[in-house]
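User: quick one, fold this
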Amino acid sequence: MKGYACEWFSGAPATPAGVQRPSDERWLALTGEGELEPYVVPPTLAHDFSDLQRTEAAFRDFSNRFGLLLPHEFWNPGNGQVLNGVSLSRFVSEHDALQQVVALLEAVRGRTAPLRQHLQSINEHVVPKTASTVDLEKALKDDTYRKSQGLPRELEEICAALAAQVINTHLRGDDVGDRTITTIERGPESGDPTAVQRTQSLLGSLWLQCARVLEGDQDRRRCQSCRDWFVVSPHGAGRRQQTIYCSQRCNNRAYVARKAVAARKN
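Assistant:
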């Protein structure tokens, strides 16, 4: 990607009939030229996006690096032009949903801390209050599970079902679903014909990443040193399952830190 530069504008959606209406909505639009292959993105980008601060500056910096999530036309009353951009409300809604899904995916892997943080918003915005989510909420408040490595199998399945519900909703949306392409290709290891989904939008790529994590082929884990996300895979496409560091550099840094702590104690 070259020369990407995005700026925030005030504007209103441009309707199919060309009717323009005043709005205080904020839109992030591309102001420079760039080249982008939307579905060729870092393998942890969905998790990285969920980590962003919910600010205009953070969303702009992300878009300057990777492009706009899913541009739509909007009318800019400042210059009377129709531009392509993403509304601030769309950024916020997708950010909230991805935070919730990442928390559910973490719980499926036995890491429940993020889920405790986002459970209320999951109950309020993702699904109606049900017996299943009540059981989940109760379990997360139980000291037995608070101190354990994860949840009972049946509650992990609830988390997986909730994550699938949210992912499907976003992948089937008109503006994302219409830009998703399925092709049959040979699998990288077996060579057998495999259905492969790609998308022509950056937003679709983020949701497809979440779907692949839920499939269980790859896991995303936080580095215990730098706190960045990295890929863990049983099939060799990421770091080994038991590792807790994203790189040898972080491993070395943690080792030095442990040595320093031991030296102070002695």
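User: anything notable?
Assistant: The two ends are 52 Å apart (CA to CA).
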